[in-house]
Fold this protein.
Amino acid sequence: MPRVRLSPRGGVPVHLDPARHIPPTRTKQMTQPMTAKTHAETPERRTYRAIQKLVVFCGLSLFATVIFFVSLLMTLPATAVKEFATIPPQVTGLYGSLWQGRAQLVGGNTLDWTYDAKQLFRLRAGWNVVLKGPDTQLVGLATLSPVAVVVYDISGRAGPELLQLVPDIPIESCSARAVVDVQKLRMTRTAAAADGRILVDEGSCLDVLERLQPVPQMTVDLFSQDNDAIAVLTDRDGELARFTVAGDRRFIVRVEPEGATLVPGLPTSGPIILEYPF
């Protein structure tokens, strides 16, 4: 006999057929904790992670130490250079510090420098330099590292007063000026390199005997060959002189007869070759 129960809607009886009635099932929500899938670290991996942390710590400590000592060194006065280097006679005074200072040069020229801290990230010291004179304004970046001394991006104008920086030159004054565009000058213990060009305007020079010497328009091409840096001086007719800074520490000058006519006192019968070790 079928069972009868009252419907919740107005008490209407509802017949339940045991053969057809399927009792509702109560579902039980199962909750499982979400855990990250982890793997047990092997002893080798723990050792690797420990070494990695140690290397990072030592690297940061070394970098901080280098910055500290470089900053301390940069606060030294510029005159401290005299303690470990020979000052050339062309330098008549030193002012400021190694971080920022000035060198007074003969001929009314000055050399200003400002330390570039960004160069530390390239493991080298660097200074933005400016060479000034009555007709001179040259800028560049000089860098120093344990393996090389390099000057980058030298550009501007060069006046005749720079000739006074050359010792024993038999020229009293000049009117010629030059435009400088040199990308790189590099010197290491075993090699030298150069890249750039200098354009010299036409003018005249007065020698020590007060004789007026005409100066043609000239070009100085700088380039590298093997381990040597070479500068070739030419005019519209050809090569006048060649200057070589050799990787084995030799400075070689070759002056052609046409170039010798520009320097009072030099013989013009044949090429002149001079060599200076340094």
